[in-house]
Specification:
By secondary structure, this protein is of the alpha/beta class. Helices cover about 20% and strands about 25% of the residues. The strands form five sheets. Strands 5, 8, 9, 11, 13, 17, 18 and 19 form an eight-stranded mixed sheet that branches. A five-stranded parallel sheet has the order 14-12-10-6-15, with no helix packed on it. The protein has a two-stranded antiparallel ribbon with strand order 1-2.
Length: about 350
């Protein structure tokens, strides 16, 4: 009997080692050798922590293998100014010229903190509708929670491809993104197209390089960026979403992807998933090869003091200061609520601008 007990314990320990790696990663803070082990699956695909750089999908690398100062990637930064750029008309971009190579980058949202606080009339109207609906249904919510500390996501773009003249196409399907460009000295960027679902901007680029913008949240006639759902990992929506609802969501996304890919082909000459770079949520992406082990790394240049070129839309405010943005937004919300209630704010409970002291 004792031999059977020892045998069973031996088998159990062996199973745990193989299944959960209890002698390796489990229960420790060690970093895995394979960066893909740090990815998690979200509703829009893979999501990465700030230590990971996304490359040709689905490849990922460690930031320390690309940047020579990775500790700076999470530093708090402050911009100097904003330059507003008109959006393209008719959902149409300038096509690539002969000799240009398309660098096709797409995320759902940025994983980094841009320190840019922006809100449009469209955003505020949608949030106000949600807030009124919640309060009239007896749910106590603070309208200030909608607007305090909501920075636009940021993605660092490491450009290392020095063999081609690049046309960067930077896409974000679920939000706006501030794209922070970092390039090796010998790389060449000819033009940039930004396609976003919210306020977006570009920083770290030579002012002479033309940048075109399209915010699909402000242009409903344009097709929203999206990935091919068949190329994404399965996501468990949980019990709150039935199998039929999950199927319907997938079907809707497949239709949107097909529409977007057709439109993308008409604009840039290739389908939307051609040599695609990026994952659903990323703080960094790389356009080009990862530096060799003994080669110089890319230097991260902080945003401090730089000017960001942003989409010109129905912005209520944009600021590098969360305090200034919150103060401005509370006033704007009060005015919008006054209009929405026909001047009878007291009919909506609880008090709309009440904030915990």
């Amino acid at each position: 009997m004792q031999k059977l007990v020892f045998a069973f314990v031996g088998l159990l320990v062996g199973y745990l080692v193989l299944e959960y790696d209890v002698i390796g990663m489990a229960g420790s803070n060690a970093t895995p050798e394979d960066p893909s082990q740090l990815l998690v699956v979200g509703p829009d695909g893979h999501e990465a922590p700030g230590t990971i750089v996304a490359a040709d999908a689905p490849k990922v690398f460690f930031a320390k293998d690309i940047f020579d100062n990775p500790d700076q990637l999470t530093a708090v930064e402050t911009l100097a100014d904003f330059e507003f750029v008109e959006q393209v008309e008719g959902c149409r971009f300038t096509p690539p010229s002969v000799g240009m190579a398309l660098a096709n980058v797409q995320v759902a949202t940025g994983g980094g903190d841009s320190s840019v606080y922006a809100y449009s009339e469209t955003d505020m109207a949608n949030d106000l509708i949600d807030w009124i609906s919640a309060t009239t249904n007896g749910q106590e919510t603070d309208i200030g929670e909608k607007i305090a500390l909501r920075p636009v996501g940021k993605v660092n773009v490491a450009v290392t491809d020095s063999t081609q003249i690049l046309y960067l196409v930077l896409q974000s399907s679920q939000s706006g993104v501030i794209w922070h460009i970092h390039k090796m000295p010998e790389t060449r960027i000819a033009r940039v197209a930004v396609i976003a679902n919210g306020t977006a901007g570009v920083i770290g680029l030579d002012p002479a390089i033309p940048v075109e913008y399209l915010d699909v949240s402000q242009n409903e006639q344009c097709v929203q960026p999206d990935r091919n759902p068949r190329a994404l990992p399965d996501y468990d929506y949980g019990r709150e979403v039935s199998r039929k609802e999950s199927y319907d969501l997938s079907r809707q996304r497949d239709m949107r992807f097909r529409q977007y890919s057709t439109w993308f082909l008409s604009q840039f000459g290739v389908p939307s998933e051609t040599t695609l770079i990026g994952i659903a949520k990323a703080s960094h992406v790389i356009v080009g090869p990862v530096p060799e082990a003994d080669a110089p790394r890319l230097s991260y240049v902080p945003m401090d003091g730089q000017t960001v070129r942003v989409t010109k839309n129905d912005l209520v405010y944009i600021s590098p200061s969360p305090e200034a943005a919150t103060t401005h937004a509370l006033s704007a919300y009060s005015n919008l609520l006054e209009q929405a209630s026909g001047g009878r704010v007291e009919t909506i409970t609880p008090a709309p601008i009440a904030r915990d002291q």
